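Lesson 9: reading folded outputs for more than one chain in a single document. The general rule is that every protein is listed as its sequence immediately followed by its C-alpha cells, and records are never interleaved. Here is the first one.
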Amino acid sequence: MDPAIKPATRAFEDATPLLSRPEELRRVAAEKGYLFFKHFFARDEIMAMRCLLLGVLQEEGLLDPGKPLLDGIGNQPAIDGLQPEEINWNGIGTTQQVYRKVQKLEAFHAFAHHPKMLAMFGGLFGERAFPHPRNIARIMLPSEALKVTPPHQDFLHIQGSADTWTCWAPVGDVPRSLGGLSILEGSNNAGLLGVTAAEGAGGLETILCNLGYEWAEGDYEAGDMVVFHSLTVHKALPNRHPGRVRLSLDLRYQPASQPIENASLMPHGPFEWDELYEGWTREDLMYYWKREAFDFVPFDESIRWQKDKIC
C-alpha cells in the first residue's frame, strides 16, 4: 500500500463465509449496505477481461507500446493530446470511440451473467436475480483532465427498484492508491439524501453532514468485488499512480419481480443494441429482458435535485 494513503476508518470484511448462510447475508447487507467478497472470481477470468479491455486501448494507440500490455501503462503524449471533453465523455474515463468498441464485446456483457454472481444475488434477494443489460466499464485513463467520482447514491441515476444493487469489480489489482471504491457503511439506511452539482462521473455529489457513518475501503486484488445497495453512498479514491490506467466494471442487479426504469434496459452510451450485437454468437445474451414481465416506472427528474435536504 502507498504509505501516503492513510488506513481506512473501517476495513472491508470478507463476506464469503456468509454465502452459505443467506439469512445472515441479508442481515449484514441490510445493516451495512454493502458486501465485500475476497477472490470471488478466478483471477484468470479477470485477467482475461483485462486483456480484452486493454487490447482496445492498444488498438487506439492509448497504451505505451514499450510496456507489457497487462501493466496498463498509458501512452501519455497521446492521452495528453485528447481534449477534456473527449476524455470526460459519459463519466467512463476514455473516448467515445474506445467505449463503443468495449460495448461491442460479447465477453464484456456475458460477464454480468456469471453463474456465481447470479447465485449470490439470488441468495441476497431471496428470489431470481435479474441482471440489467446496461453494463458499464470504467476505463480511467491517466489524465489530469479527469475528475474523481464524488460521493453519491446510484438510485438517483438508476431509479426503478430501490432494491437494485451494483457490483463494482476491479479488472486487475486496484490498491487504494490506484483509485479504488470507498463505501459509506450503513448509509443505505439514511434514505435518499440531498445533492449538489459536482465534477466527476454522474455530475452530482451527495450532501453529507452529521450522519455518523464511517467510510470503509481496502486494497482490491483481481477477483475481488464489492456489491452495494442503490442508496449506499460511495465514491472513488484518487489515482496516485502516474501513468497507470484503472479498469473496473459496474454491473447492476435487481429482484426479477421488482419494477424497473426503461433506461436500465438500454445500452450505456449513445448506441443501439443492434449495432452492439453485430458478430455475437450467444443469442441468450441478446434482448433477454423481453422475456420478462416488468412493471415499468418513469424516471423522476425532480428527485435528483432535493436541495431542501441539506445540513
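And here is the second record, again sequence then C-alpha cells.
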Amino acid sequence: MLVARSAAELEDVARSIRAEGGKVATYVVDVTTKPAVARVVEEVEEQLGPLDVLINNAGVRGPIGNAWECDWDDWWSTIEINLGGAVAFCHAVIPNMARRRKGRVVNIVSEAGVFRWPTVFAYSVSKAALIKFSENLASECRDDSLSVFAYHPGFLPLGLANEAMDLHASATPAEARVAAWCRAQLESSSAASPGSSAAQLVRLLSGAYDVLTGRYVTVHDDLDLLVARVGTAAASRDYRMLRSSA
C-alpha cells in the first residue's frame, strides 16, 4: 500500500511497481488528519489483509532560517507532518500488530536529528523527536514481539535534497547556504545511492536484525557488526557505545 497527499505522484510510483510485476494499492490521505489515517488503515486491512510492515516516510523540509525568524505556523506544520504523521499511523496500525504479535515499524529519519543542522531547525527538531519516539515505542512494543527502527537512508539525490538544491539564486542567505551544503554533501562520501539505501531497508525488514529494535540505524552501518556488539551495550542500552565502536 502507498499513501501520500498527491494522487498523481502516487500513480507514477504505482505504475513503476506494476511494470515490474508487483501489486499495489494507493490511497490519498493527509497524514496530519488522524481520523483519515485511521480510516485508510482500516480500509487497507479489509482489502489487503493484516499489515506486517509500516514505513513512515512522509516528510517536508520546513522553513529555513534562524529559529526566532521563521514563521511559527510553518514550524508547527513541519512537526505535525514529520512527527505527527508517523505517530498517527503507529496509533492506527500497531494495535492489530500487537494482537498478532507480528510486525515491524521503520520511521525514516535523518542525521539532522542527531547532529546540528542550523537554520533547518524545524526539520532537525522533528527528526530528533522521531528518533526518540522510535526508541520509546520499541521499548513499549518489546513484550508484543514488535520491532521498531529509526532509519537514516543517507543523503540521496532525490526528494528533499533536490528541493533544497533547487533554491534559486534569489534565495535568502540561509537558503543559499543550505543549497550549497546539500550540493557538497551529494558530492562527498556522505552521499548514498537509492539502491543501497533500499537494500539496507530490506535487511531491516527481514527479521534478521530485530535485536537492534529501538536503534538509530543508517544506510552506512554494518548491521552484522552492530548485532555482534549489542551485548557490550545491553546493560545500559547506550547506543552511543555501539556507534563509537563501529
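What the second record shows: The chain has two domains: 31-154+194-245, 159-191.
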